[in-house]
Automatic annotation (TrEMBL):
PROSITE patterns: MFS, SUGAR_TRANSPORT_1. It is a multi-pass membrane protein. Gene3D superfamilies: MFS general substrate transporter like domains, Multidrug resistance protein D. Signal peptide: none annotated. The chain crosses the membrane at residues 24-48, 63-81, 93-111, 117-140, 152-177, 183-201, 213-232, 244-261, 282-307, 319-338, 345-364, 370-390, 411-434, 458-477. It is found in: Cell membrane. CDD domains: MFS_MMR_MDR_like. Keywords: Cell membrane, Membrane, Transmembrane, Transmembrane helix, Transport. It comes from Rhodococcus gannanensis. This is MFS transporter. Pfam families: MFS_1. Residues 26-481 form the Major facilitator superfamily (MFS) profile domain. Its main location: membrane.
Amino acid sequence: MTVEVQDTSRPYTSSDNPNHERRWLVLCIVALAQLTVVLDATIVSIALPQAQATLGISDGDRHWAVTAYALAFGALLLLGGRIADFWGRKRSFMVGMVGFAVASAVGGLAQNGLQLFAARAGQGVFAALLAPAALAILTTTFREGAERARAFAVYGAISGGGAAVGLLLGGFLTQYVDWRWCLLVNIPVALFALAVTAPIVRESKAHGDTRYDVPGTILVAIGLGGLVFGFTQAEKHGWASTETISFIVVGLLALAAFVVVEQRSSHPLLPLYVPWDRNRAPGLVGSMMVGAALIGGTLYLTFYLQIVLGMSPFVSGAASLPLTAAITVAAGIAAQLMTRVGPKVPMTIGPVVAALGLILLTRIDVGSSYVAAVLPGLIVLGLGLGLVLVPAQNIALVGVEDHDAGAASALVNATMQIGGALGTALFTTIYVSAKSSFAGTNPDAHPFAVEVAGYTDVFLWAAALLAVVCPIVLALVRARKADMPAEGAVGMH
């Protein structure tokens, strides 16, 4: 997503902003849209065990309910930002909201797994248009001063707290209404948002070069899709199979071609200097690993709480809240640390702490106590993730030119979603393989013990992925506290 560069030859006045008079109403609308997008990542995770039973989805395929959304969202987020800027932010916002509602209706009425997965992919496609359009409206409505800081504080709080809302709402709807309402609930929300957006928000768009990088968009979608499908084929056919290797090779070749296209394009989807900077690269890697651990790894915690410990959907959602609370607390600590010692310290400590939390979760067993075996790991994991999230997002804007600031911020959000998609696919393969291996060596084991063997392997691999971030940060990051953006970055999707 691009951000319009203000004309600095004259002072900015409120007359330059068509939404200035209704800016606080606009903030409420944007916050509602952001909440919808964020909570949809977790609300379905809580409902997934029930949806799996109803629709007859296999253990190897159920991850697509999460992967399809994250992959489509992450792969198309940069393009969605360009469309919002060039086509019109209000128009893109409304189309994105309509499409999101339609996809939610299809998912809520799904009669089989394939329909649910297709609907989730549709949600991701329209979320990739809706989320950057909402952010662009906010960016152009609040342009400077204390009001801008307050507006982005609200936006960031929604981004962080939306996951918790999704956990509780998903648990409540699944237990007391029906799991389908975890998707159908988006319809009345969308209708309300459209009804208030039409008369309140005024249209705005970027000017100048408004060409789209279609080849780049196609290549990055093929590349990421190839990697995800390759990881899922490994679960069915093995890592050395022709199917697995073919998809992974196609994905890598498409991503290599994407780099070549972006180098030669006069209007690239992603200016390559953004990800290749020595400071930003660790932030992007950190964001991807956090996405893998948060979206992919914790999905199996939901299964453990509901399937093995027998918690109801609502109770399991509440039991996951300490993770969100710990992330929120650590994010505040990280923000303070950045102003005192710079981003390197929290970005180095955070992955180690988060990995330790996941290692603590490997202690779970069939008869484990939530308080003794799960809660400590959740809190430590959340503290570590919070320490990484804030500096990773802020460091993404270090040294970025004004007209690419939106693309840089969108890239961090995209890498988190992509990390979640790739991580979920990879962890599914690990989970199925670990179950098969454990069952083979322990033929008389209780079925729940087989499940736990799969979960603990996932947590261990997620910890290993997070630990990789630490040496990368130590080797590459040179940014200091003075280099951090004065107003901070926006919240993550």
